[in-house]
Amino acid sequence: MNIEVCYTPQAYPLFHKDESIVVVIDVFRATSAIVTAFYNGVSKMIPVASVEEAREYQKNGYMAAAERDGEVIEGFELGNSPFGYMNNKVKGKTIAISTTNGTQAIEASRKASKILVGSFLNLDVLCEYLAQQKKDVILVCAGWKNKFNLEDTIFAGAVVQKLTTESGFEITCDSAIASKHLYNIAKTDLYEFLSNSSHRNRLAKLDLERDIKYCLSPNQCPVIPVMEGKYLVKM
């Protein structure tokens, strides 16, 4: 089995293989929020690329979440803070969600045979599942508006590290090698390593340090969201 890392959604067509499993990663904060939502009882989520699509679902009676540039869009009750999904009001609900980066990465990966959602919050259970499938894996980093970012790449490196050292995966991809090295440099203190990263500073200015610390906490939510048609559901 081979594992590759795609640093931005825009580059996904260069990596696509019909039978590969794709893992979409947006550590700060969409995939962390999605994993948290399912851990707290959300039934389904509908990732959409545009705020307009989210509004249409909202008009049709769905709960809807929308975020741009780190902030909740006016008129929506939820954004992509994981803490917004830690309550009973989301239990059993179907929620449409649109975010700056994460849902764009899901949209870019639509041709994949299977799309999973990954974050530090579900790291071990995700890697255990991937190891069992014995298929090639493509880790798609959401980045920041189609630019490289550190936190998604470091998480990708954590997955590469586990799958290559514990489950017999091979690397033939320089971006996967680089991600693994970056994770091994950062892993003793992820929070400190990312202290000067662009997106952490962006969120810190919005007083979201609590979100940052939570999103870097491994294995808090041992669930795997997976795309089935237009829906994300809990595996």
Detailed description of the structure:
With 235 residues, the chain is an alpha/beta fold. Helix content is 36%, strand content 19%. The protein has 9 helices and 10 strands. It has a 6-stranded mixed beta sheet. Strand 4 (63-68) and strand 5 (71-72) form a beta hairpin. The longest helix is centred in the last third of the chain and has 17 residues, at 150-166. The model has no long low-confidence stretch (mean pLDDT 95).
For this entry, give a set of tags:
single chain, 235 residues, alpha/beta, six-stranded mixed β-sheet, four-stranded parallel β-sheet, 9 helices, 36% helix, globular
Question: Numbering strands along the chain, what is their spatial order in the largest sheet?
Answer: 5-4-6-3-10-9
User: Rg to the nearest angstrom?
Assistant: 16 Å
Strand content: 15-25%
Distance between the termini: 22 Å
Quaternary structure classification? single chain
Query: What is the helix/strand order?
Result: EEHEHEEEHEHEHHHHHEE
Q: Tell me how many strands there are.
A: 10
Which stretches are poorly predicted, pLDDT < 50 over at least 5 residues? Answer: none
How many helical elements? 9
What spatial form do the alpha-carbon principal axes imply?
globular
Instruction: Tell me the major beta sheet.
Output: 6 strands, mixed
Arithmetic mean pLDDT: 95
User: Fraction of residues in helices?
Assistant: 25-40%
Structural category:
alpha/beta
